[in-house]
Amino acid sequence: MGHAPDTRLLDLGSGSFAYFQKDGGWGWSNAGLVTDAGEALLVDTLFDEALTARMLTAMADASGLASDRIGTVVNTHANGDHTHGNGLLPHAEIVASEASAAEMEAFPPALLAQLKAGGAAGQLGLAGQYFAEIFAPFDFAGVNTRAPTRTFTGRGTARVGGKTLDLIEVGPAHTRGDVIVWSPADRTVFTGDILFIEGTPIMWEGPVSNWLAACDLILGLDAEAIVPGHGPLAERAAVAAVKDYLGCIAREARLRFDAGLGAEEAAFDIGLGRFAGWRDAERLAVNVDTLYREFSGTHDAPNALALFERMAKLYYDRR
Fold this sequence. Notes:
This protein is α/β, with parallel strands linked by helices. It is built from nine helices and twelve strands.
């Protein structure tokens, strides 16, 4: 069985592959496979088990290695669109940063299924309507995920045959424990959601300085292939554009913070300029809120439901 027209499996050479889904919008994440000497390592799974099963079949067809030859899965961060397929690899070691492992426990698939069902039923207001709409294609109720079996902080490694991969924790940024996976032998980096290409980054955690530094780290690698968490294969200019977006939003938010505007008011006031055409522009609401918490020195967790409400207002207003 080949992969469907809305997905693309790209052979990166040297036994490495990248799997791309649709346009990279909400939930349509990417993943990677690194192979050597009959062994395989998977970078991230997908948002539900059906999508992950389809991907594993495509990877097996291309690599000649069945999914039971995948000995290690590295989750780049805690979000479900990069972890919910873990359960389809029952014998693999699941590796993640310690911070990501803790964050996975806070947002189980059952909670997402409940929010989606409530939104579809007209509950939870505008936030529920928006949540149900953007996540309509995904089956959270059918997910039986696996938690990480090995965690690390800072830097770690993973081996695939004769290859050693560097696991570099660059979070908190997008989430609490973001990790990039660098394969020097393949000159390939899998960035997780440090990179959204042609789509708007969303900063749930921050600080923004960590994310900017992560972009610099990626640009400093001798990478021939840069595989983002969402969107197409990245050129160096696209990495720089992500950095430019984050810097621009940080400056604009700071101006409005200093002027006394509230975070929601600021999100509606900021013009996106050359970034206005990026997908999911309403994520600006989350980015501004996270920056405001950073500016004020507040360490409280974000109110996810309130932020989905704010994104929904921007989304429906601009649509």
